[in-house]
């Protein structure tokens, strides 16, 4: 059981039989009354953000979350198929559950998958991934201005802006939070 003194960003709690993450929290006290905690909570399944006020003596139970390392196999008609490496059980995760994260999935790689009540709800990614450039324009001789970029298509279908020296077959590091090119990888 958690109390309001345990609150921190990202803490998973159950409120009104619904799972939430704590996004923000602020203690406030008015006059002689008890201290209250004003929070912003993000629903784990739907992503909806709500504001709630709790008393200083409220308690909360943690949701039934489980993290499993699963291997990404392939995409099939709007679903991504993952396999548990220990039990060989396969699960199907709809595209809408992943959002933009689908651009960073590499076949046969393992990723931590978050489950809530035995239902996959999200895939965790590192801060950056290394992807191969499969299509880009050749560099134009004489382009030496520092801010010039060109579009490049990566192995997962993601398109990013890269410097002119990057060519097809190069591996580049991409930030998974913003989708931006970071650097050329070895």
Structural write-up:
The longest helix has 4 residues. Strands 9-8-7-10-11 form a five-stranded antiparallel β-sheet. It has a five-stranded antiparallel β-sheet with strand order 14-13-12-15-16, with no helix packed on it. Strand 2 and strand 3 form a beta hairpin. Helix content is 2%, strand content 53%. The chain has one helix and 16 strands. It folds into three domains: 59 residues, SH3 type barrels; 59 residues, OB fold (Dihydrolipoamide Acetyltransferase, E2P); 58 residues, Beta Barrel (OB fold (Dihydrolipoamide Acetyltransferase, E2P)). It has 186 residues and is mostly beta strands. The chain is flat and about 75 Å long.
The count of β-strands is 16
Please, how many helices?
1
Query: What best-fitting shape do the alpha-carbon axes yield?
Result: flat
Poorly predicted runs are: none
Q: What name does the CATH topology of the largest domain carry?
A: SH3 type barrels
Distance between the termini: 47 Å
Percent of residues in helices comes to under 10%
The largest pleated sheet is described as:
5 strands, antiparallel
What's the alpha carbon Rg, rounded to whole Å?
22 Å
Give the integer mean of the pLDDT values. Answer: 87
């Amino acid at each position: 059981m958690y109390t309001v003194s345990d609150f921190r960003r990202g803490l998973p709690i159950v409120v009104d039989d619904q799972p939430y993450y704590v996004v923000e929290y602020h203690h406030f006290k008015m006059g002689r009354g008890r201290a209250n905690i004003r929070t912003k909570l993000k629903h784990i399944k739907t992503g909806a953000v709500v504001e709630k006020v709790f008393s200083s003596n409220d308690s909360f139970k943690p949701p039934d979350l489980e993290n499993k390392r699963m291997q990404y196999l392939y995409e099939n008609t709007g679903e991504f198929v993952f396999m548990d490496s220990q039990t060989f059980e396969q699960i199907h995760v709809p595209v809408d559950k992943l959002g933009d994260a689908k651009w960073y999935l590499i076949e046969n790689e393992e990723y931590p998958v978050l489950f809530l009540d035995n239902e996959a709800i999200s895939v965790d990614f590192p801060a950056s991934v290394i992807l191969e450039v499969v299509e880009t324009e050749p560099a134009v001789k004489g382009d030496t201005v520092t801010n010039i970029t060109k579009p490049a298509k990566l192995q997962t279908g993601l398109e990013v802006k890269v410097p002119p020296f990057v060519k097809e077959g190069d591996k580049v590091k991409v930030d998974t939070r913003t989708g931006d090119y970071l650097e050329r990888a070895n």
